[in-house]
């Protein structure tokens, strides 16, 4: 590994991996990016823990105790932390459950919902403890940049990373981030 490469980690918390799929939409430009960066923990490398990094990209909000642990590990080890996509930004789709109590959500999913057979709320200690609400990641740790979109486009991610790596002020064009 080249010593002067920017080290990047990514993870998905309470998200759908759509933002990571969008990251891969950089397509062949990923090879160009890899001339300047190397990956630490990410679904692409399957490294399980985030080591010291320059940049951490976080997809998804925070819905359980494991998400809190992973997010704090990223904050501790990454110089720059980026909220990538609506779920990280504001809780997104998973935060729709915030309109209901956790008890109501579990009962609807595992006891009373359409198509439920063998009604039983899972309580294995191996399962991460659910939080009462889904949180945007800035409510748990300090975030340095917010990249909006559901998901942000590959072009937006590409432009964002290039400007960040070049030490420029981030200035995404309106066309890259409008959703009207
Ligand atoms: Fe999926 Fe959209 Fe959330 Fe990204 S922002 S993880 S694409 S739901």
Automatic annotation (TrEMBL):
- Quote the protein name from its UniProt record: NAD-reducing hydrogenase hoxS subunit delta
**What's a Pfam family in this record?**
Oxidored_q6
Keyword annotations from UniProtKB, A to Z: 3Fe-4S, Homeobox, Iron, Iron-sulfur, Metal-binding, Oxidoreductase
On whether Transcription regulation is a keyword of this UniProt record, the answer is no
One Gene Ontology term of the molecular function aspect? oxidoreductase activity
The NADH:ubiquinone oxidoreductase-like 20kDa subunit domain covers 16-163
Residue ranges crossing the lipid bilayer per the database entry: none
